[in-house]
Amino acid sequence: MLFNSIEFVFFLPIIFVLYWFFTKNKFKNQNILILVASYYFYSCWDWRFLFLLMFSTFLDYLTGIKIDESEKQKVRKFWFWLSVGINLGFLGVFKYYNFFIESISEGVSILGIQLNITTLSIILPVGISFYTFHGLSYVIDIYKKRIKAERNIIDYAVFVSFFPLLVAGPIERATHLLPQIKKARIFQYASAVDGMRQILWGLFKKVVIADSCAEFANIFFNNTADYSGFSLFVGALFFTIQIYGDFSGYSDIALGTARLFGFELLQNFSFPYFSRDIAEFWRRWHISLSSWFRDYLYIPLGGNKGSLWSKVRNTFIIFLVSGFWHGANWTFIVWGAINAIYFLPLLLTNKNRKYLNTVAEGKVFPSFREFYGIIVTFLMTVFAWIFFRAETISHAFLYIKKMFVDLLKWEVPPILEDYWEYGLAYFLFFFIIIEWFGREKRFAIESLPDKCPRIIRYLFYYALVLAILWYGGREKQFIYFQF
Amino acid sequence: MKKFLIKILIFLVPIVCLIGLTLYYYTIKQGDLARMSYLKISYNYSDIFGEKFSKEPVIYVDSNAVKTRKWKFFTIGDSFTLQGRGGYVGKLSKEYPHQVLSFRNDYLVGLNPVLTLEHLLMGNYFDSVKVDVVILQNVERYVLERVDVYQDDSLTFEKMNELGKQRLINLENILNEVAPPYPTNRFPHFLFNNVAYNFNSTGINHDVYKTKISKSLFSTKTQDLLFFKEDIEMSRKESSERIEKMNNRFSTINKKMEEKGMKLIVLIAPDKYDLYYPYILDKKTYVRPQFFELYHQLEKDYTYIDLFSIFEKELRKGTKDIYFYDDTHWSPFATEIVVKEISKAIK
Questions:
Q1: Is the four-CA dihedral B256, B257, B261, B265 of positive or negative sign?
Q2: Helical H runs in B86-156?
Q3: pLDDT tens digits, residue range A465-477?
Q4: Contact criterion met (CB < 8 Å) for B188 and A461
Q5: Which candidate from A6, A189, A466 shows the least CB-CB separation from B182?
């Protein structure tokens, strides 16, 4: 069940009504309902993997208690590594088995040895990367004695399986979400209205912006040989916008939906394309994932403390692993490596925390320096995204090579005339403007009630709805569902 | 909570109304022009044709009965031949039961009936399947493009069998495909187009023109005409040279058919725009088509049924709904005339 599907349009209000009218505001009842709804939501994707989700949930619940109960370090370590091993094992098998086998075979074939390999025909369980990391962060936090184990299996299962974030995040922390699960949620009018507003904006980003950019990005990436120069650059731009609209749109829908049920989830995107340098970009893009890697991988490795070598090593590890998390393909690893190369100079010169506030805070226009920083950072991410989108490394290199041929020859390919004709260029323009003016908020139109009279606001909402209906019609999967 | 629910419900009211209206008016009963333009057409427009929609089973070229006997008619054409609502082949099949064999549109080579017929003639198809009369139908707006296409190939009876098998496989694949989700773009299109057509002759989509006419020629409350944009676009590409080329191509086909002892009947379905042009009020905006004026000047050594003149006469008499109001195709009233003219032509 996708967020932008007819099924979800019926699912959400039904669960909403049941939740607020039939649970008597008791959090136990609320949690049971949320859990049932979440399992139903997940089983709409593929009911077979519901058992995997349940197993993973039970495993982490049990090992969490075992770790918490024992004072002996050896026992604690045993249960900890059991949980980590099984969780990562599932991830390894479902997501990375074929990649490792094929890579080993290719590597060995360079030496002239041919291996008889067997790949597995496995469907990747939706959301496995996300709920596995939920569970891992929980177990790690217990092991590190940051939190106590949750004794109520229902409450814990809700933490893992809460349907708004189940299949594509944000990756929540037990310290943030579990306390909310363990108390009754009272309906908050302002929060619910804000949640609806966020859902609407998220749908607009996904259906109108991301999906329309996807159609054009796909043309250039799937037919690279037929284009060159400016066309391919535009294709890369389209993908850059697509992935932002898709993923941040999904996050907005997830956060908005959670707020309808009285939950506040972690913000996952904070206008990353307005970043002034790459370090700021990584503080604003997929925040829940990058902070997860920071807290559970980077800092335990030593972070930015220690020798130059350890700083470089840790930076590469975190970005390579982050890339690898996205998919079982060398392109993602190279994408991670490129971002590591971008980040390192800032880290080594202690400039990685230069921009902690919002760009042009309190102002309408950025300074020339800020504008320059935004453009350069944006172009750097566009370049890196080419690897993320390409099918193979050689495809990425071909794309880049062809892109630089006649790059300055500003020939607009005929296919882009459709973009103008269907008004998509206007939507994109207004989208950027609205995002810019909303950059100091959690999502772009959060402050609309403060800035606009009611009638204008409602006309704007209806315009968004009509745009979503107009460009909807075809369900397209969220990119991050493949992770 | 109450305030929230009330607010949401009030917000949804216009959206639900829009969805409701669209679902009510936008139906599969509507013609192609109505569906392309999203215009609000009377829900019961198609009811005026009552029982005139042909229900006769059509025998296609891939049926087992093909080789068993001689056929009086073999029909090949575009959507005016095998038409969903009231096509002439159904009526011809009723007039001449078990004597009409029809070529499937999805077997057409490059969607081109002219080229396909030539390929059938070059192959052994008509040696295997005995036919008296071949009816070649093309719509005015595409016929000149079709006769511009040449391709050296042949369609044999065996190849047709293969096409038949492939078709069954394709149908099975289609049935196994996941149904596409509901096209929600219908709703804003319905809203915008029904407003836009009051200010603009092509609405938002620019696929369908809507213009006022001087007479009530359709069973609708309004006095206007809907037609497909390509009727105008293609009429701008007409020339006497191209029409002469078309005439010569038909002659060549006729000669080949005569060698095989068959007769050719050529039908050219007039564009709705061309047929109704004399009644369009805004003559400044709309160019007068010249196709039939030029075509009728040429000598023809094949049987040509001048449907344009026949329909023109009916319109002058005030006959309504010769073509569907909401569709680019001719109506069952017209196809009855077509069948009568075919019967006259073979006597």
A1: negative
A2: 88-95, 113-122, 125-128, 140-146
A3: 999 998 887 544 4
A4: no
A5: A6
